[in-house]
Structure formats: structure tokens, C-alpha cells
Amino acid sequence: MRKLAVVALCALAAGCGTGSSPPQPVSDADAAFEKKLQEQFLDAKPGTVIEIPPGKHQLQRVLTLRANGVTVRGAGADKSILSFKNQVSGPEGMLVYANDFTIEHLAIEDSKGDGLKINDGENITIRDVRVEWTAGPSKDNGAYAIYPVKCKNVLIEDSVAIGSRDAGIYVGQSQDIVVRRNRAEKNVAGIEIENSIRADVYENNATGNTGGILVFNMPDLTQHGEHARVYKNKVIANNLGNFGAKGTAVASVPAGSGIIVTSNPKVEIFDNDIADNRTANVIIASYYITNFADKKPTEGYDPYPKSIYIYGNRFSGGGDSPDGLDWKALKVSMFGISGHFPDVLWDGFVDTKIMTNGQYPAEQRICVQNGEVEVLNVDGPNKFSNPKVGKEEFHCELPKLAAVELKGKA
Amino acid sequence: MSFAFRSVRVPCALLALAAFLGGCARAPQPVHFFAEGRPGKLSDWHLVEARDGKLAANTDVVPYDLNTPLFSDYAHKFRTVWMPKGKAAKYDAEGPFDFPVGTVLTKTFFYPLPSGAARDAKSVARTYDTSRDFAGDRAGESLDLAKVRLVETRVLVRRDNGWEAIPYIWNAAQTEAELARTGDAIPLELVDETPAKAEREAFAYVVPNENQCAGCHVTNVKAKQIEPLGPRARHLNRDYAYASGKENQLAYWTAKGYLTGLPTTNLPRDADWHDTAQPLAERARAYLDVNCSHCHSPTGPANTTALDLRAAATDLRRLGLCKPPVAAGRGTGDRLFDIVPGKPDASILLYRMTSSEPGVMMPEMGRNTTHKEGVELIREWIAATSGTCDA
Known about the structure:
The complex is a heterodimer of chains A (410) and B (391).
Chain A (H helix, E strand, L loop, with lengths): L1 H11 L15 H16 L5 E3 L3 E4 L2 E5 L5 E3 L6 E4 L5 E8 L4 E9 L6 E4 L2 E11 L13 E4 L2 E6 L2 E3 L4 E6 L2 E6 L2 E3 L3 E6 L2 E6 L2 E3 L3 E6 L9 E6 L2 E3 L20 E6 L4 E4 L2 E3 L4 E6 L22 E4 L2 E3 L8 H11 L8 E3 L19 E4 L5 E3 L10 E3 L20
Parallel strand pairs in A: 1-4, 2-5, 3-6, 4-7, 5-7, 6-8, 7-9, 8-10, 9-11, 9-12, 10-13, 11-14, 12-15, 13-16, 14-17, 15-18, 16-19, 17-20, 18-21, 19-22, 20-23, 21-24, 22-25, 23-26, 24-27, 25-28, 26-29, 28-30
Antiparallel strand pairs in A: 30-31
Chain B lengths: L12 H9 L26 E4 L2 E4 L4 E3 L11 E7 L6 E2 L13 E9 L10 E4 L15 E3 L3 E12 L2 E9 L6 E3 L4 E9 L7 E8 L2 H8 L15 H4 L2 E4 L2 E4 H8 L2 E2 L19 H13 L55 H7 L17 H13 L7
Parallel strand pairs in B: 5-16, 7-12
Antiparallel strand pairs in B: 1-2, 2-8, 3-4, 4-6, 6-9, 9-10, 10-11, 12-13, 14-15
Helix pairs in contact in B: 5-7
């Protein structure tokens, strides 16, 4: 009990030591624990279960796993804690290059870089895992809390991501993904699906981030994303000041963004509770509206959002205090001091190459069938000179996207 | 009598007996290839051994050097190759040679001791001067233990199922290196050799664990196989000061029977990063190749970022020119592009090379200090690169 109290005090005091302080000496108990745990990671074979006992364990070095079919299991996300506060080598907390990997019921705290990174794995389950930077939002925090990249068949459920300087739950360049019942708070981006194919993002709670849920497509990468369903989430009050590093894609996310789709085709947003995101509850954007310095994306990359379908969401509040002077001025001039943007903001960039009579082909349109919800086209292509609110012209339907099926998962 | 320097391993009674019969250190045991398992001591392999005040390479254990090496916190490196009798590696112009089963490579990381100071547990010299590394009588084939501090020796062994990496850490007495599968963090202090500066820099020398070895040595993230990085044609194509005299390494390996298929012309050769007589761009590209491309290649673990820093890369955007970062986080240092031509201080690449903080620095592991001279080289190269990233 006494030990727990000390740990709690430590957390209250906003962390014992800062990210850049020289490594602290470790206790013999922690050193022995780390050596044994490192050995378990080295010796793991298919079928191995590595148990993380309850307690807060201080580790100096990244835990790297290369064996397939391994489970890492703790006693609970608030009980078995791997703390990397004094990390000297990594930079990740845990780094996995393996298939058929399950991690559950534990926490990873204060890693120098990403918390949990899984690179190029198939059949990945992340369950009841908390990854957190305990001092809250800070420039010293790592980029991603939970970070599967180039993976196939990914399930992330009942997990928590707090304090990432980029995205809390970040699924990159992957395919067949389910992200459900997670909580993302105080990250720049709460949950981000990037350059990924077939993702279901549902029953998550994204609150207190700069942006709640992002579906992004970036240039240069070998895989272009498509097909994401974002539904039954609570995306509430994501108004945290952007503390992302300049140059990163998320540094362009305005504080107060609920759900953002950037350059990603085939996105369905439905049955969500989206409220009190003070720039806009939903933003549909092309690559051109972002603050990305690079305006010349590579060949083969489609910078426009296409086949976007928004319907049946419950909106309230939001759009009343957009981030940035330009946006504030636009809001005041169009809707008055006490007014607010409509629930959906669109940058207005269109791919004229595919248009006939000023219209996209039916299956590639942006459709908003959400009761009285309006869309503000900010007229990005003409430097915001003629923004206008529309509704009926967005009333269209798209074929529903298929649910994601994960092979071999319940 | 050199018995005091030898570790007698009880479980390996046969070897001990053989050592006894063979007259101790005067006639060292032949190299032992372990087809499986991890021997507890480096000396079990009989590859390089500390005896008579030297770290000596055994008979048929051939030392080698690279045109441009990986930076490892200013450590000097003593590399060796050994192959079973009658076996040879097959030449490859680009990738690692095709080494036969039984090949064993070692890489010993060591530092010259600061000149004029008594040996202590921490102090090591920050210097490029290798003149006091080697024991005089055997030229480049043994280290002078009175003048250097051994830190670790990594063994890379080619077994039936592929390569395996096995790390060993040298003891305080510098008599033996013990198996250290989980690596270690060893407190050291770099002492500047320039008397005017006499700076000291404390840092944690990190010995990687076996899985971290694979962090660099698995260059194809799909294949997941460990491979040697150094012994490639373009790195090895240079002279070495053997006991028998100076000779090109590739020619020496061939003459020794360790290499087949060496072409007679057009051998690739990377620049020596440190040799200012060689073209700046070639030195910079050689440096990036050796320090970065094991991850930053189209097949490497950092192919998630679309950055390709191989010597062979030709696409300038993939090389980082005006390329926005993908997953850098705070590693951008608030900069917009990996490389901004003419503007080293606006380039993420240089920012990450300059940092020694985990989470910011690149490479992510293998160093905990900043390679000042490497940073200066890349700074010069970026400054001399023309173009603009303005839209």
C-alpha cells in the first residue's frame, strides 16, 4: 500500500524528472526485473505467455519482440505498469516485429518515443492496454501511444491512449482493422487511421484531444488508404491546443476538430455522438487545405476526399470558436459573434478531372444525409473568398461499405 | 606464464584438457564453430582472445575494416571473419556476400585510453587516432591491451537456419568477455584528445540485446532474417595492414580462400567519409548509407517512412529532399522537410543526427552521443546541395 501511495504522489507531482534529464540510477529490484523480462522477450517462442506482474516496473531499455505467436499479459491496465521514465535506449517502450501477437491488461508509461509499436505483423490483438504520458500533453512526449504499422488483421479494443504528441491510437499503412471501445484523451489526434485499407472504428470515446478521430491519406507511402467506417463513437469536446511538432501532418489540425477526413476515399461516418468541437464537428479536407508545407504530392497520390458519406449522427454544440484568426474571422463574418459554423466543414477543393457538368460521378460524391445538418464550403481554391453554406446539394446516398472481418478473431 | 589470463571452463573438460596438452597460450586452440547454443564466454569460440597483454585474432581469423563505418559513440572496432576450411563466401556486388554455414564474424568495440592518464573504469578517449590501438609485433592483427579498453564483442554466426547475433561484454580485468544476451548500459566518459579542449562527456554506452541486434541486422522487414552489414564489396574494397603487409581486403580474402567470384574490374567502392580528399557528396552518401540504410531502404523496417538513404538510391525525394516527415513526432524539431537544400539547420535529418535524446535522435540505437564530425559532414553536404522546397 505504501508503495502505491508513493507512486500516486509521483504521478500527481507531474512526473519525477523530465524527459530530457540524465538517466536515474535504477534500483537493484528494477534492474533484476528488467533483465529477467528482457530474457523472456528474447526466449519467447510461439505459444509463450509473458506475464507482467502487478506493480510499477521501471525499465531502461525498449522491450523488443521478434517471435511469432506470443502473448504479453498483465494483471490490468492500472495494475501492471511498465514505466520508461528513465529510459536510456529505445526509443519505443515496446517494439514488436511478429505475427499472431496479443498484448493485454497492462500499461506502458512515459516512453521516450512511441509507446507500443508493432511493425509489419499479422493478426495483432491489443486489448485493455493503457499507453500514457503521465505528465499530460507535453512537447517531450512520444509521437504515438498505440502504433501498429504495415500490419494485417489488427484488433485494438478496450484500450486507452493519453498524451501522444501525434496520434494516440495510430494505425498506419495497415489493412483489415477494428478499433473499438477505446478511450483517447489529451493527444494531438485521438485516433488516426492513415493510409489504411478497411478499418472499422466504433464505440470509441475521443475527448479532450486536438482532433478526435482522423482518417488521413498521405503522399509518398506505398499504400493508399480507403474504406473506413467511423460509427457509434463519442467524439466530444476535442479542443486541446495543438502541441504537435511542426512539420508533422497533425500539426495542421485545428484545435476543436471532431472527425477529420483528409484525402481519403470511401469513408462512412454514421451513428456517432459528435459534440462541442469548437472549430467544427466534422471536417472534410483535401491535401491542399492542410498546412503541410508540401504542395506537390507525389504521382499516383489522390489529394481529394472522395466517396464520403455522413449520415445519422447526433450533433450538438461545436463550431463556435474555431482555432486560428482566419477561421475566427470567417465564423464571425458569416455567423456572427455568437453564431457557429455548421456541423460539417468542407475545404471545397475538387478534382475537376473527374467532373461532368460540375458534378462528381455519383459514387464519388461527398454525401451528407443527416437531418438538418449543413455543410460549409469554405472555398479553399479561391482563398476563402466565397464561402457558402449548403445542404440539399449534399443530400445523396452512397452504397454502404462492408463491415471489416478479421480472420481468426472473435 | 599466461595461465592467469585464461578462463578454464569446467563444463568443457575436453577443451581444457586440450588446452593443457597443447601448451596453454603458445598454441591456441583452433576456432570452434558452435552449430547451436550460446557459449558463456567469448574465449570458448577461440576467435579473438585476450592473452599476453593483447587481444589477438586466432590463426585463420582475418581482421578487416570498412571504408566508412557505422558511428558507435566514437568506439573503435576490431572486426574479424573466419570460415571453416575449404569453405568460401560468394561475391555479391551490392548485398552481403553469401557466406557459408560455419562462418563466424566478430566485432570488438573498444576505446583507446586517454593518453597520459591512469586507467579508470570510465575514461576513454574520443579520437580517430588508431596508432596506439594495435600491438606492434602483429600489425593490424592484435590490440594492445595496455592502451585500449575493451567494451564488448559481438559474434555473428552463420548456422544452418541463418545468422545469429550473440553479444559478449568484457570484464573489468579485460581478461574475458561474458555472454550478455540482454545487453547492458555501461557508464563511460569520453575524454577529448585535444589538450586545449580537454572536454569530458559522460554517457551510457548501450550494448544491444539480441533482439536489438536484429533491429539493424534485419534489413528486410518481411524476410526477418539477420544479415551481416559490413562485409559487402563496397565497404571492404580497401587496403588493410595485415601482419604480412598492406593489401586490398577483397584480394586478400580471395587469396586466403574466403571469397570466390571476385570480378577483376569495376569493383564498387564507397568513399571514406573522413577523407576530405574524396568528393563531399560521395562521403556524405557513404556515411548515410552505412549509418541509416539498414533501416531506411525500400525493404527495411523504416520503409514506413518512405525515406531511402542507401548509397544506391537515386530518387531525390525518397532521399529526403523536400520530403515531409511521416511519423517523426517531436523528431521534426519543428522543421518541415527531411532535407532542405542549402539549409542544413532547416533539415530534419540534421536535427535528428545532432540530437542524442531517445525519441529524437537518429539512428534510434547504436549511439547515445552526437557524432560531431558526422554532423559536420552532412551539414556541409546539405549546404552544398542546390534547390528549394518552396512551392
